[in-house]
Specification:
about 750 residues, alpha+beta, Immunoglobulin-like, five-stranded mixed sheet, four-stranded antiparallel sheet, about 10% strand
Length: about 750
Amino acid sequence: MIRVAITVALISLAAPATAREVVIKSGEHADFSRLVLYFDAPTEWRLGRIADGYRLEPMEPNTRFDTSQVFDFLPRTRLLEVRKVPEGLDLEVTCECHANAFEYRPGIVVIDIKDGAARPGGQFETVLDTPEDRPAPIAGPTRHVSVRMPTGGAGTFLQLPITFPDAVPAGHTPPPAPPPTPEPVPDTGAALRAELGEGIGRAVAYGLATPRDPDAHATGERSGNSAAVPGIDVRSGVEIATGTAPAEDAARSACLDGAIFDVTAWGAASPTPLAALEAARANFLKDFVEPTDAAVLDLARTYVYLGFGAEAVQLLAAYPIGDPAGAVTAALARVVDNPEQPGPQVLRTQTGCDTPAALWALLAMPTADLGTAIIDSKAILRSLSAMPLHLRRQLAPAVSERLRRAGHGDEAQAARETLFRATNEPGAELEVEEARAEGDAAAPEVVAAVEDAARGNEPVALAAQTELLTRLARNRTPVVEEKRHEVEAQIHESKGSPESADLVDAYVAALASSAAYDDALALLARLRDSGHAGTYDLSGDTNRVMQAVTADPSEGTFLVEARAFAAGPLRDLLSPEQAGEISERLTALGFLTEAEGYDDSADPRMDAHRQRALSIRALREGRPSETLARLASQTDDEAMRLKADALMELGAYPEAAQAYESLDERELAADAYWQAGLWRDAERLTMDAQRKRIAALLIGEAPAPLGGVTAADGTAQLAAGAGTSGGVPTLAEASGWIDQSEALRTFAQDVLNAAASPQ
């Protein structure tokens, strides 16, 4: 989709404009220095890294910055200098700091230089290109092309004179030169079209627009009396970054009128919220007749503006409005009433729109979609900053959480700061979100605020308590007795609520992380017997506890807990995978009977890991054939080693030797070859010098049965007539010799003595 902002930007690139002057004011705070830039109108800009700090580049040319007031109230502890350069404004940083920027409202840009290093991959940490890397000025022939306009639909095209560059900047593929076409018939919009055309030509050089084949579009390619001409596809910066084309991005093509999402405007005309409500109600009850759709919509919007989502939903259910504005207002009301939960589908189609719709689309998105959705963070922060304080209190925590989950950490922080900078009492919900976002790096005062918020049974108190327990689990800190009583009372009072389920998950994790396994399992057993068992993830929590038990470094603790759990009330909640892990550790410790107690829940389609655990047990219990059967389809090194051991147990020495040799287990292979009577292979692999000498003397010989060994004149002799052709004994012969291993060792020693005696 071609968006209005892109079109405006292209026109501004093309046409000379009157120089605008941007006044810069500043302020110093405890942990950041702030610059506020007052543009006279909404503008596009970017902020990025340079060698000695950051650079702000406005996208509109002829922008002049008034820096005379920058250091009136700002020490040079973070910002050493603010310099005007041809590209924009350079900010020289003198500390280990990072920049964060946002639009306070259209035309006002705020830049904070904050203490501490930036998060990896931060939005404003991209190194800006240098002047020599930038595209050369546009110059070259003018051709007329057809351009799809943003408001006319898929088949609306406009002929524009496009100035193509003579030389394409480095890194860009040169566009194909369009063929000459007849000049279009002049019209009254020629001047504007020429400016827009020159701007799109510049966009071609920057990679923002691409000429396309007119044959690919069957409709809308002819205008006036001109023949079909090359078309231009225009893409936004987000589309370039993600590689999506306008036709492929359904979210962008579905942008509705931004005014029907602009909640901020719905109550701005009234001096007070009460006045807005009184006016809307008076209009609704006018003449005590059936209210008009306009009056219903006005009252519902006023409810949404005031944060009364449930009232707006009820009103629109009683007086349905069929147009998109009614459906959107009802959707916004549901989000306002519960911003933590995903919203209606009508909002989710607006993810890429650069209007207030972007904020509501973010709140409506399911958590699973946040990582892949197109998110216009500038539009989101701009809308949030413009909202009245009561709505910001309601929405900022959820906006921050969703931006954070989507991987936009800096933007999430900016969302929180829209409230922190407006009031000293941002609310417990935002304090909890700040603690979640900052993790263990959260300031002590933030943690203290969360601890204060955790007292009580309201949803925010449960959320605060959940965050505190999550911190304890992360740091493996025991839950003290006083905290346990407090948490269990909250669970009892709030049982059945979603917040209670989250609290149970965090409490069980905290207990398990500090090895309080019995307490965690006892709690889960009580909840299972309660009337709200379906509210909780009892199976998931049980498996988490037993996973911690299985990983406990103390063998004694593991054995006690595993034995007790096998006979306990939660045994049937254990997953086959976790049961297999417990069984495997019990087997490794030699507790085979106890391990069998965890086999009955094993998945009959057992995975390779589980089969291997049972094959080890079978080998230890003297069932090598079962070991081979369980490992028949596994070929990794560990499985091959187990197979080789099983073959040795079965007396299949040549096969075992080959398996050991494939694993480069030379001595084990040599032992197996020796027991098989394959002296040449035994001599080849063994590293023991004495065994090598024995094998060397036996190579090529066919030993007689050991009963035929005689000692004459002190010299060992080999009886003739035994063995197989070629001197390689059969498996049966080798088995017979090994059965008399003591005699074989005596015989070998006689051979060595004879070889060493003087002739």
